[in-house]
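Folds abound. A case:
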Amino acid sequence: MNTLATPHADPAVASPPRESHPRRGRARGMTLIEILVVLVILSLIATAVAVNVVGAAGKARVDRAKTDVQRIASDGIEAFRVMRGRYPTTEEGLKLLIDEKFLKANSAEGKLLDPWKREYVYLQPGQAHPDSFDVKSYGADGQPGGDDENADIVNY
């Protein structure tokens, strides 16, 4: 036998089968299931963020109301008492303190509004402080009593 003869096809070293169609440059896209999974994950993240943001906004309003009540009590009512020798009456209310420039209104209507856009309540004598006065906000629900964000906020 001639060792220099052209090699014949060896079945053990067969070439790969030819495809009947030439391979197209097919771009791989996302399947519907993959898109749905991504949407579910994004929805869960958005829900978690929204819950935290809404909770933080509620706490910020309560904190602002607490600060406002104390500021009204010290900068307005106590300053008025030192200058005039008495507390304003319930009827005179916070309007007197605004008119006499002890306090500055925080609304276009010339009133002192809490973070929920309701007027602060002034009572003299107070319910919580019968020997002096109360400045209060009824919280998010605008009703006496309540818990958490709906709780009354009163000067101390």
